[in-house]
Amino acid sequence: MILALDVGNSQLFGGVFEDGQLRFQFRRSSHPNSASDELGVFLRGVLRENNLDPALVDRIAVCSVVPEMLYSLRSCCRKYFAVDPFILQAGARTGLKILYRNPAEVGPDRIANAIGAVSLYPNDNLIVIDFGTATTINVITGNREYLGGTILPGLRIAMEALEKNTARLPTVEIVPPHDLIGRSTIESIQSGLYFGTRAMVIGLTRELRKAAFGAESTVIIGTGGFARLFEREKMFDVLVPDLVLLGLQRALEMNADGSRRWTRQDVEREH
To answer: Which domains does the chain have, with CATH numbers?
Structure first.
């Protein structure tokens, strides 16, 4: 049984794979100073609440854009699951040709999304839009070349920026508004967040598609915590909310030696 964990700036997104199938997924707030014991108790509790025995987890795959959490995560996996986790980072086998000027700069979550997208559409040109803390748009060719993309402030960052940097604008619930024209301050903020993000993403996706692929066919994939908000907008061809987890599972397959049981001998060697 495989435990996959994607650690973002706002949330930890996880899931359990059994026999190649995603059994269930879960989310919780992520904090850079989370202790290994706190994470371990939470993860084991989530598994038990979903009628799964934590002892059956024999491999763990992790990607994290919060470097400060990697030490706690690794300690958590070793102590609470007796598993040394696979960390998706520079040097791992990905099946992609990364064309960033410095490949090590690409966020591991973006790489996991690209791996997941290529596994679903192996011969297609792809654009992956991830609506998370940041909104990222990633471009992958049918030859598995990761070209790069764009990074925008996500919906929550944009809302918090308005609240923190203005005297009278309140925090609002992030929901699809009924009308473009807001008739209250709250409605106006919700309209700006939603329709502003929609306009930016649609425009950038169109320009990226033209720049990378011209008139060639392209599959556009939506993913991330806020992706369902835009499902009705036809901004993408397919919605795959768990794409990053699928990518982590595929990455672990390509790095079969990356995660293994953590034994007493390993502990003694470390000390």
So the answer is: 2-90+255-270 (3.30.420.40), 97-243 (3.30.420.40)
Q: Three-class SS of residue 160?
A: helix
Measured in residues, the chain has a length of 271
Given the residues 6, 84, 109, 130, select the one marked as catalytic.
Answer: 109
Residues forming beta bridges with residue 2, ordered by sequence position:
17, 59
Q: Which two tokens stand for residue 257?
A: 């030696």
Q: Which amino acid is at 59?
A: R
Reported as a single tens digit per residue, the pLDDT across 85-107 is 999 998 899 999 999 999 999 99
Dist. CA 180–CA 199, nearest whole Å: 12
Q: Which pTM value belongs to this model?
A: 0.92
CA distances (Å), 162 to each of 143, 182, 189, 217, in order?
41, 16, 9, 38
Active site residue 242: no
Q: Using CA of residue 168, residue 173, residue 174, residue 176, what is the dihedral sign? A: negative
Distance CA 127, CA 34 (A): 33
- Closest of 108, 136, 92 to residue 253, by C-alpha: 92
